[in-house]
Amino acid sequence: MELARAGMSFHGDCWATLHATVQQAYVDRVREEGIGSLLEPYARTQMASWLPEAAIDAAVESLTEDLETTAAVRDDAEL
Predict the structure, then answer these.
(1) Which 3 state secondary structure label does DSSP give 40?
(2) pTM of whole model > 0.85?
(3) DSSP single-letter state for residue 2
(4) pLDDT tens across 45-76, in order?
(5) How many structural domains is the chain composed of?
(6) What is the distance between the alpha carbons of residues 73 and 68, in angstroms, rounded to a whole number?
(7) Range of 19's domain?
(8) Residue 40: Cβ-neighbour burial (10 angstroms; 0-12, 13-18, 19+)
(9) How far apart are CA 50 and CA 76, in angstroms?
């Protein structure tokens, strides 16, 4: 399984286990905290904690480069 956002690949069995674990955690949280707990993943400001630091750092660096490029293109367009 390819996780393009983080530039990582997972063995199919590992991905299935990870996915099932995360989904079960959502179900458990809804039971304990209510339906509003489903919105938390959309409000977080950091990538999932299970991603290795190197993948997070690479994603942040890539995003920073993209934003700098976008800003430079926009600045050139305004001239």
Answers:
(1) helix
(2) no
(3) E
(4) 655 555 666 666 777 788 888 888 887 766 66
(5) 1
(6) 9
(7) 2-78
(8) exposed
(9) 39
